[in-house]
Amino acid sequence: MKLLTQEIRKKLPGLYTQEGKGGKAIAYVKFFTPDSNWSFFATEFDGEDTFFGLVEGFEKELGYFSLNELQQTKGPLGLSIERDLYWKPKTLEEIAPEMFASENGGD
Q: Which residue, 8, 51, 63, 90, is the most exposed by fewest CB within 10 angstroms?
């Protein structure tokens, strides 16, 4: 499976273009390991290799991840990372509301 099509490349904003939006930043693509619980939600892309977005693994955190590393990584059963073909863009606060509760008046 091709992780990043030309169509998705065109939709993804450049790095730092959603900076300051917090939970309102939109994740345009989701990658996941089918044989474990890791997911990568890309909100920005540098056009070459580097994404910024939400990573769900041992913890949920915002950070950078690499297309090359996604393409090379295998899960515990040897399965490659895939792109969620049915993903519809969502805000980060829709994906991980607990991370952005303070932005919405919560604790």
A: 63
Sheet holding 82-83, edge to edge: 60-66, 50-56, 39-45, 29-32, 82-83
Q: Is residue 74 part of a domain?
A: yes
Report the predicted TM-score, pTM, of the whole model to 2 decimal places: 0.92
Question: What is the sign of the dihedral through the CA atoms of 86, 33, 50 and 61?
Answer: positive
Structural domain tally of the chain?
1
User: In degrees rounded to 5, what are phi and psi of residue 21?
Assistant: -80, -15
Residue-range definition of the domain harbouring residue 4? 1-14+26-40+70-80
Residue 107 scores a pLDDT above 80: no
Provide CB contacts within 8 A for 92, sequence distance 6+.
22, 23, 24, 25, 26, 27, 41, 43, 53, 54, 62, 99, 100
